[in-house]
Design brief:
By secondary structure, the chain is an alpha/beta fold. It has 16 helices and twelve strands. The chain has a six-stranded parallel beta sheet, sandwiched between helices. Strand 2, helix 3 and strand 3 form a beta-alpha-beta unit. The relative contact order is 0.20.
C-alpha cells in the first residue's frame, strides 16, 4: 500500500502500531490511510485539506463485539460455561470520520459499515502463499476429512460448534490447526478436552504456518476447510486453504465468496454444520473434484498479492485524482501518512 503511493509520486510516512498511540502529525498531509486503532485521534489532528481513508480489516466494531458476545451467551446456555471475549474491538468513529474506506472482505463486511454513507471500495484480501493444483491428490481417499484452520478466539471462530458437530459424525474426520497452546485459550481447551484429544475422528495438530510444507501435507489429506465464524473482515485463513484446493464450508459471516463451488453453512448451528458437511462428503466424487478445482482457480484469480496490488493501485489512483469530491486535497500537498496495526518498513523518498 505504501509502495503504491510512492509509485504515484508521493512521499510516504509509515507509523507502526507501537508508535501510533502517541503519534502527532507534525506536517500537512494530502492523504491519511488509517487503521481502526487511533484513527479518531490522528484524524482530529490533521490539517485540512487531507483525505482520510479507513483501511477496514475487520467488521464494524459494534457488530463484531455484539456477535462475539452472542456466541459466548449461546455457549453458556449450551454447555454451562462462561468464557471471556478474546477478540474485543475498541469503539471508534473511524468510518464516520473517513472520506473513503477500503474493505478486505465481501458484502458481509461492507454491510456492517454501510450505515455511515462513506464510499466503500473492496480490495480483495491477499494470501501469503499460492500453490500448484494438487494433481496427485486422491480425492476418493480424503473426501471425508475436513480441516479447521484459524487463529485464536476459538468461540468467535466457531470451533466449539465445529467440534460438537464432528463429535456427532464419527464417520467423518476433522483436523484442527490453531494456537491450542496459547494460554488465553486454556479455559476453552479444558472445556473441550474430550473433543480435541479424546475423539478418534478428531486430530488436533496445533499451530502451523500456511506457507509451510506441513500445511501442504495436511491440506492434501483433506477435502475442505470449515469455518463458522461470527464476524470477519476477509477470511484470510480460509482463502489460504482455498489456494491449496480445499473447498470452503463456511457461513456468511466468514466474509468469503464461495460461488457455486463452496458449501454454505446456511444455519450456523451444530445441525447446520452437520448438514453442510455431510452434504459435501456425500456428493458424487466427480462433483467434489470439480468444486475443488474451481475453488483453487477462484482463489488464484482473485486473492493474490499481485491482485491486491492491482486493485489497490486502481483505488489509490482514483482517490488522488478525484479527491473523493475534494480535488484540492489531491494537489496541494503530495505527502501521505499510513497508519497501520502491523509493523511495516518503508523508505521515504
Amino acid at each position: 500500500m505504501a509502495q503504491t503511493y510512492v509509485d504515484l509520486g508521493y512521499a510516504v510516512d509509515v507509523v507502526n502500531a507501537a508508535d501510533s498511540r502517541d503519534f502527532v502529525p507534525a506536517k500537512q498531509y494530502s492523504v491519511f490511510v488509517g487503521h481502526r486503532h487511533h484513527f479518531d485521534r490522528i484524524a482530529s489532528r490533521l490539517v485540512e485539506p487531507c483525505l482520510k481513508v479507513l483501511h477496514c480489516d475487520v467488521a464494524h466494531w459494534l457488530f463484531h463485539n455484539t456477535a462475539g458476545y452472542g456466541r459466548l451467551l449461546d455457549l453458556q446456555k449450551r454447555r454451562g460455561l462462561t468464557l471471556p471475549l478474546l477478540r474485543l474491538q475498541e469503539p471508534n468513529r473511524a468510518i464516520e470520520l473517513a472520506d473513503a474506506a477500503t474493505v478486505l472482505g465481501n458484502e458481509f463486511t461492507i454491510g456492517t459499515y454501510r450505515y455511515a454513507g462513506t464510499p466503500i471500495h473492496r480490495i480483495p484480501i491477499s494470501t501469503p502463499a499460492v500453490y500448484d493444483w494438487p494433481k496427485e491428490k486422491a480425492f476418493d481417499n480424503h473426501r471425508r476429512t475436513f480441516l479447521w484452520f484459524n487463529s485464536n478466539g476459538f468461540v468467535h471462530k466457531g470451533l466449539d460448534l465445529v467440534l460438537e458437530a464432528f463429535a456427532r459424525m464419527p464417520d467423518l474426520q476433522l483436523i484442527v490447526c490453531g494456537p491450542v497452546n496459547d494460554e488465553i485459550e486454556k479455559q476453552f481447551i479444558d472445556a473441550y478436552d474430550k473433543e480435541l484429544y479424546g475423539m478418534p475422528n478428531i486430530r488436533t495438530v496445533g499451530w502451523i504456518e500456511d506457507a509451510s510444507e506441513e500445511f501442504r501435507q495436511i491440506a492434501n489429506s483433506c477435502v475442505a476447510v470449515i469455518s463458522a465464524s461470527c464476524s470477519e473482515g476477509g477470511g484470510g485463513s480460509i482463502l489460504s486453504c482455498m489456494q491449496a484446493g480445499l473447498i470452503p464450508v463456511v457461513n456468511d459471516a466468514t466474509s468469503v465468496d464461495i460461488g457455486s463451488f463452496g458449501a454454505p453453512i446456511k444455519d450456523c448451528s451444530i445441525q447446520g454444520i452437520i448438514d453442510a458437511v455431510t452434504g459435501l462428503a456425500n456428493a458424487p466424487l466427480s462433483e467434489i473434484e470439480d468444486r475443488a478445482r474451481r475453488t483453487w482457480e477462484f482463489a488464484r484469480a482473485n486473492h493474490t498479492r499481485e491482485r491486491f496490488a492491482e486493485k489497490y493501485r486502481d483505488f489509490a489512483s482514483s482517490l488522488v485524482h478525484a479527491g473523493c469530491g475534494r480535488t484540492e486535497a489531491a494537489s496541494v500537498h503530495r505527502e501521505v501518512i499510513h497508519s497501520s496495526a502491523t509493523r511495516i518498513n518503508a523508505h521515504v523518498p
